[in-house]
Amino acid sequence: MRDLPVLTGDAVADAATDWPIAEHRVLGRGRLNTFVSDTVVTPDGATMVRDYLTHTGAVGVIALDEQERVVVVRQYRHPVGFKLIEPPAGLLDADGESWLTAAQRELAEEARLRADDWRTLVDYMTSPGCLQESIRVFLARGLADAPRPEGFVLEGEEADMEVCLVPLDDLVAAVFAGRVQNPTLVVGVLAAHAALRSGREADLRAPDAPWDARGAKAARDQELGELEAP
Amino acid sequence: MRDLPVLTGDAVADAATDWPIAEHRVLGRGRLNTFVSDTVVTPDGATMVRDYLTHTGAVGVIALDEQERVVVVRQYRHPVGFKLIEPPAGLLDADGESWLTAAQRELAEEARLRADDWRTLVDYMTSPGCLQESIRVFLARGLADAPRPEGFVLEGEEADMEVCLVPLDDLVAAVFAGRVQNPTLVVGVLAAHAALRSGREADLRAPDAPWDARGAKAARDQELGELEAP
């Protein structure tokens, strides 16, 4: 095998980058997302067209009890035609709400639980070739019952949702067997497993650690807003 | 904390499920995906509207050399405004091509490499609330140089792509530091780390192991095709 450049340490890092948009079109508007098409100018001066769905971003919670069992819900996901085993999660949909507050709200709404100890477990983008979404996954420990937030009503697929506990090791086995497929569950379970089994738990980032994807999203949203303005 | 039902073993499994579609609309058509809106009938007889992007599905490859270094590319991803560190990956876009053949093609096209040993590392759905996409990630070992497939030309953001090697442990550290965010990289690196460090490598599934998400997709595609027919 030929020699390839080797990247190590802090150089192993994504880079916020924004190639110029020469033309922007709206292909369709949904309730939460807009399907758009941008003609982008590449560094060598060529152009390429990229269609993608805008997205507000989301948070998810791997909530672990004292026996290393993970709180999950079963939820019907129409786009993929599956009822999936998932961690509590939701959209960043309330103006000005912090990421941590959003995660705490989702844990209370979906599982009627609260947690004492919150860490940033992992951040990821869900499908960066066609979707603007980025997700922060928290690790939450020190669980206790909590009331469902006032005024919150379970609707649609959430009305059909069941809350369960699953031992972390059973979830890892289910990931490798291909029996669970939700991205935040797969990412969160593998990250929690690595953190707990490799002694990295104390190194996990604070819940309010910087999240660069949010800055890139805000810049893009402003740019698209200006391009769509009459 | 109150008692919750506990799920263990093989019961930890997603379930293919298809709630009836009462109404189907096309919101917008892109080059590769269609943005659709389905009115879905829930088990209690209510209806809910769900907007989502159709997707052909994809494969990715965690290719490990003999020093446990992972083959990565850096690629501009316009929807998120980042140049990301990613494993070779691509759409299941060729008629009748097997998932494994698609992954082997992507490894040759993007990195000019081939591999002797292929396993199914992990399957996941990227954003099951708004996107139909499912991805199979392979673990590939026994790397050697390969010619780029005949007729293949790097275009757009791929023309700007760099191929590198990154030690697996440096990638795990980058995941926990929030420096890398591509979903197939995050999932694949954490899964490879778990497989190699927990003695699960010999248990990894065969490259042609069943992949239930593909059956659910085929059924949905047929249903949508019939609903869209004049």
UniProtKB/TrEMBL annotation, chains A, B:
Source taxon at top rank: Bacteria
Start and end residues of each Nudix hydrolase domain: 54-193
Keywords in alphabetical order: Hydrolase
GO molecular-function term, one example from the UniProt record: hydrolase activity
Start and end residues of each stretch annotated as Disordered: 206-230
InterPro entries: NUDIX_hydrolase-like_dom_sf, NUDIX_hydrolase_dom
GO biological process terms, semicolon-separated: nucleoside phosphate metabolic process; ribose phosphate metabolic process
Keyword DNA-binding attributed: no
Residue stretches of biased makeup (Basic and acidic residues): 214-223
Keyword Ion transport in record: no
Gene Ontology cellular-component terms listed: cytosol
Protein's UniProt name: NUDIX hydrolase
Species of provenance: Propioniciclava coleopterorum
